[in-house]
Automatic annotation (TrEMBL):
Protein name: CD166 antigen
Chief location bin: membrane
Gene Ontology terms: cellular component: axon; dendrite; plasma membrane
Biological processes, Gene Ontology terms: adaptive immune response; cell adhesion
Keyword terms: Adaptive immunity, Cell adhesion, Cell membrane, Cell projection, Disulfide bond, Glycoprotein, Immunity, Immunoglobulin domain, Membrane, Repeat, Transmembrane, Transmembrane helix
InterPro entries: CD80_C2-set (IPR013162), Ig-like_dom (IPR007110), Ig-like_dom_sf (IPR036179), Ig-like_fold (IPR013783), Ig_sub (IPR003599), Ig_V-set (IPR013106), Surface_Rcpt/Adhesion_Mol (IPR051116)
UniProt-annotated location(s): Cell membrane; Cell projection, Axon; Cell projection, Dendrite
Length: 560
C-alpha cells in the first residue's frame, strides 16, 4: 500500500513490524543503515549492518532498545508495535560513490474493547428527558466513532428527545483512545420492551470495522390510563355461600397498589389493595361492583349475579295419617333462574307429583322433592316427607277343603298399620293355635293361615291387634268328613283385579247358558215342580237337623 505515494506497512498494535529495504543492493556496497525522521525532519539512526564484516550494530535509542532486528537483506523488524512507531523510516545503502535511500511509512492499528453501556438508568419515565446510559469503547487506535441503536435501528439526534454527546480521551502513555457516548432519551410506553445498544466503528489493517455492545432493556414507568375490574371465582357462576374475590388492576407501570372498591348498598368506596374478598355471599350481593384509583380519576364496573334456590315442602318431616284421609302436598320453588323439580319415592323417581285424595297403605313411604339449577354447578336443594298411613286392623276369614280331602285351610286376611299381631284360638276351649303361617307384609296387608283336620265341628277365632285397636272375627268350620265349599284367597297384588275380571266373565257365560237351559226345559220343570220341591225340602231339613245335632254335641262336650 502507498500513503502519499510512499510505501506503507500496516501493523497491529503489539505485533511485529516488518519493513523490507526496497532498494537493489548495489555493487561495492559498504554498509546499510536504518533511520527514522523526527517531526522536525531531523534523522535518528537506529541500526547499522556492514556488508564486509557481517556485523550488526543498534544505536542507543531508548524507544527501540531490544526491539530491533536487521537481517542480511537489510529487512528491519520491530517487535511489540507501539503507537509511537507510526513514523517515516528510511533504508540507506552506502557505497564509496553513492548513498541510496528508500522511505517506508508505518501505520499502527488497535482494535478497541467491546463497547458496554455503563451508568444505566434504574428506570425510565415517559415524557421526561433523562440519561439512559454511557457507551464506552476503550483502547482504540486510531480513534473510533459510537452510534446508538433502538431495536436495531439507528437513533438520530432529535432536539429534546434524543441527545447524544460523544467524547474521546487519549492515554498519553500509550496513545490509545477511549470513546464515551452518553444518550439522553425521552421514552414512551412503546419503549417498555425496547432493546438499546451501541456500536463502535473503528479502523484496522484491512479497513473499517464495527463492534456491538450487549443490548439493554429498561424498565419504563408510565402512568395508569385505564383500570379494569374482574371477578375471580372457581366457576362460571356464583351461588349463595360462595366466596367472591374482586381484582382491580391498572395498566400503568408500576401498577397501582391501592384502589377504591364500590359495593352495592355502600355509598363510599372501600380502600383496599388490588383485591377485595367477600365470603359466604347472599342473594342481596347481586348488583354492580366498581373500582377506581384512589383519586377517583378512573373507574371500571362489572355486574355480579348471586344465584339462589329455595324449596318449601308442605308438609315435611314425618307425617302420620289415617287410611282414607286426604293429604294435600305442595313443593314450592323460588330461584334466580328456572329450576328443574322432580320427586323420588323410596329411591325411585316418580313420573308425577304425589297427590292423595284418599290415602292407602301403599301410599306410605319416604318422599323427596328435589330441585336443581342446571346452569349453576352445585346448587341443589331437597326436602323429605316421611308419610306413615295408619289403620285399625280389618279381618276377613275364609276356609277351603284341601285337594287331598284330609285337611282344611283356614285363612285370616288382615289389613292394618302398624302391622297387627295375629292370634288363633279355638272358641269354647280358649286354646291357642301356634302353627300359623304368615305371608309377606306388603302395603299394610298380609294373611295368616292354619291347616287343620277337625274330627268334629269347631269355631275358630282370628284376633288381630295393633296400637290402634283389637279386632276379633270367628268362623265355623265343619268336621273333615263334611266337605266345605272352597273360598278363594284374597290377593295382595294387582293380579286380584285381573282374577275378578276373569271371574265376572265366566259367571256371565255360565248365567247365559243356565238361562238358555231354563227356557228349553220350562215345560219339564212345570211338570215335576211339586214333587221335586217336596223332596228337596225334606233332604235339606234332614241335613240341617243332622248338622245341628253334631254342633250341639260338640258344644256340650266343650262345656263338660
Amino acid at each position: 500500500p502507498l500513503a502519499l505515494g510512499l510505501y506503507t506497512v500496516n501493523a497491529v498494535y503489539g505485533d511485529t513490524i516488518t519493513m523490507p529495504c526496497r532498494l537493489e543492493v548495489p555493487d561495492g556496497l559498504m554498509f546499510g543503515k536504518w533511520k527514522y525522521e523526527m517531526p522536525n525532519g531531523s534523522p535518528v539512526f537506529i541500526a547499522f549492518r556492514s556488508s564486509t564484516k557481517k556485523n550488526v550494530q543498534y544505536d542507543d535509542v531508548p524507544d527501540y532498545k531490544d526491539r530491533l532486528s536487521l537481517s542480511e537483506n537489510y529487512t528491519l523488524s520491530i517487535k511489540n508495535a507501539r503507537i509511537s512507531d507510526e513514523k517515516r523510516f528510511v533504508c540507506m545503502l552506502v557505497t564509496e560513490d553513492d548513498v541510496s535511500e528508500e522511505p517506508t511509512i508505518v501505520k499502527v492499528f488497535k482494535q478497541p474493547s467491546q463497547p458496554e453501556i455503563l451508568h444505566q438508568a434504574d428506570f425510565l419515565e415517559t415524557e421526561k428527558l433523562q440519561t439512559l446510559g454511557e457507551c464506552v469503547a476503550r483502547d482504540s487506535y486510531p480513534e473510533g466513532n459510537v452510534t446508538w441503536y433502538r431495536n436495531g435501528r439507528v437513533l438520530q439526534p432529535v432536539e429534546e428527545v434524543v441527545v447524544i454527546n460523544l467524547q474521546k480521551f487519549v492515554n498519553r502513555s500509550t496513545g490509545l483512545f477511549t470513546m464515551t457516548s452518553s444518550l439522553q432519551y425521552m421514552p414512551t410506553k412503546d419503549d417498555a420492551n425496547a432493546k438499546f445498544s451501541c456500536v463502535v466503528t473503528y479502523y484496522g489493517p484491512s479497513g473499517q470495522k464495527t463492534m456491538q455492545s450487549e443490548p439493554v432493556v429498561f424498565d419504563v414507568h408510565y402512568p395508569t390510563e385505564k383500570v379494569t375490574i374482574k371477578v375471580l371465582s372457581q366457576g362460571n357462576t356464583i351461588k349463595e355461600g360462595d366466596n367472591i374475590t374482586l381484582k382491580c388492576s391498572g395498566n400503568g407501570n408500576p401498577p397501582p397498589q391501592e384502589f377504591l372498591f364500590y359495593i352495592p348498598g355502600e355509598t363510599e368506596g372501600i380502600r383496599s389493595s388490588d383485591t377485595y374478598v367477600m365470603t359466604d355471599v347472599k342473594r342481596n350481593a347481586t348488583g354492580e361492583y366498581k373500582c377506581s384509583l384512589t383519586d377517583k380519576s378512573m373507574m371500571d364496573s362489572t355486574t355480579i349475579t348471586v344465584h339462589y334456590l329455595d324449596l318449601q315442602l308442605t308438609p315435611s318431616g314425618e307425617v302420620t295419617k289415617q287410611i282414607g284421609e286426604a293429604l294435600p302436598v305442595s313443593c314450592t320453588i323460588s330461584s334466580s333462574r328456572n329450576a328443574t323439580v322432580f320427586w323420588i319415592k323410596d329411591n325411585t323417581r316418580m313420573q308425577t307429583s304425589p297427590s292423595f285424595s284418599s290415602l292407602q297403605y301403599q301410599d306410605a313411604g319416604n318422599y323427596i322433592c328435589e330441585t336443581t339449577l342446571q346452569e349453576v354447578e352445585g346448587l341443589k336443594k331437597r326436602k323429605t316427607l316421611k308419610l306413615i298411613v295408619e289403620g285399625k286392623p280389618q279381618i276377613k276369614m275364609s276356609k277351603k277343603t284341601n285337594a287331598n280331602k284330609m285337611s282344611k285351610t283356614i285363612i285370616c286376611h288382615v289389613e292394618g298399620f302398624p302391622k297387627p299381631a295375629v292370634q288363633w284360638t279355638v272358641t269354647g276351649t280358649g286354646s291357642i293355635i301356634n302353627k300359623a303361617k304368615e305371608t309377606k307384609y306388603v302395603n299394610g296387608k298380609f294373611s295368616s293361615k292354619i291347616v287343620i283336620a277337625p274330627e268334629e265341628n269347631v269355631t275358630l277365632t282370628c284376633i288381630a291387634e295393633n296400637q290402634l285397636e283389637r279386632t276379633v272375627t270367628s268362623l265355623n268350620v265343619s268336621a273333615i268328613s263334611i266337605p266345605e265349599y272352597d273360598e278363594p284367597e284374597d290377593r295382595n297384588d294387582d293380579n286380584s283385579e285381573k282374577v275378578n275380571d276373569q271371574a265376572k266373565l265366566i259367571v256371565g257365560i255360565v248365567v247365559g247358558l243356565l238361562l238358555a237351559a231354563l227356557v228349553a226345559g220350562v215345560a219339564y220343570w212345570l211338570y215335576v215342580k211339586k214333587s221335586k220341591t217336596a223332596s228337596k225340602h225334606v233332604d235339606k231339613d234332614l241335613g240341617n237337623i243332622e248338622e245341628n245335632k253334631k254342633l250341639e254335641e260338640n258344644n256340650h262336650k266343650s262345656e263338660t
